[in-house]
Model the fold of this input.
Amino acid sequence: MNPPDATHDPALRSWVESANEPECDFPLQNLPFGVFRRRASDEAFRGGVAIGDQILDLAAVSRRAVLQGSAAHAASAAAQATLNAFMGLGPSAWTALRHALSDLLRSKSRAAAELKPCLVPQSEAEYTVPARIGDFTDFYTSIHHATAVGRLFRPDQPLLPNYKWVPIGYHGRSSSIGISGQSFARPRGQTLDAGAGQPSVAPSQRLDCELELGIYIGAGNAAGVPIRMQDAESHIFGFCLLNDWSARDLQAWEYQPLGPFLSKNFATTVSPWIVTLEALAPFRRPFIRPEGDPAPLPYLDSPDNRAGGAIDIQLELMIETRAMRSRHMAPQRLSHTSFHHAYWTAAQLISHHTINGCNLQPGDLLGTGTQSGPTPGEAGSLLELTQGGKVPIKVGIDESRRFFEDGDAAIIRGWCQRPGTQRIGFGEARAEVIPAPIAR
Done:
């Protein structure tokens, strides 16, 4: 667990002036990685780093003699069409490039004149999923979400007895993970209506979003070799925003006995930028279990995890309807919570994922599951906010929603901020629902 260092100094300023604005998502202290190209161009996608409202083109940087040694090698790997090679280099390479870029982008850097041509405005860029995601595992780390959903599906036993012992997860579909800005068709599938004698096939009427974080794996592990808790964070490259869309009516019919299938494999939205674990060092918090709950088993426990395994990442869920867009209205906030409420930490997810010998690979993605806090305003899904669709919520001027309708967009934003630190942000993950294709 790396403590804050000189790259986190809140007094640092950049020669990229937009990075010095107080509410900027991407100040010098952040330096997240993504993959981009100029919009509507035939350029190759390549790696970049967000700084202010600009992107530092790492392919262009690599063609200049401004980096040396391990930082130069890391920049070359990060300049590729996916970040997998860079992720696989491990923490020493990530740190070397972070420190080198921090030096180059500081306000008095001698490299400013040479690097200015390497900047591309974010407003002129388009993005792709930043890694080749071989596998996607979605967890269930919010005990508040698990309990609230359990009350709807299993009122006699909302929280199953294994929850406080096992980080629950399921293997999802990586092919349908898309980048922020995507539009996807409303899914079709089997549902069983109340009182019906048999299921029918139709577009989902209970389409929901899930306010989540994604965790990208860096260096992997060999098959059969579990990752110990004391080593787990060295395998985390960074975090993104994630929306694992869910068709709740399909889910209710199919989820027993093997869990989600068609209800969750049609669309997952991720934000373009990966905020590295190193950038999040100032925002750690102690990991504390509620009094009376069982302590994690030894393979899920470590002194470092207890001291700072939780991370205070603020998360916001918003909705924008078609009518709101036509009226030029800003998106409406639905909820605001924090990742520090999670019942399981990122390190615990990795240690549990590999305890059986499962081999993780660079670019694999872990979802945290819906992040809901202890109060009603911190619920991370419409399923919770509308009490299973029973209580519609007001949106816009004259609309209401139980679940997402065609033309609606869900927007997730995230940031870290506390006194004595520089605010860092994650950007946003946005996706819009379009009508289901006509059945043939």
Q: What stands out?
A: The first strand starts at residue 33 and ends at 38.
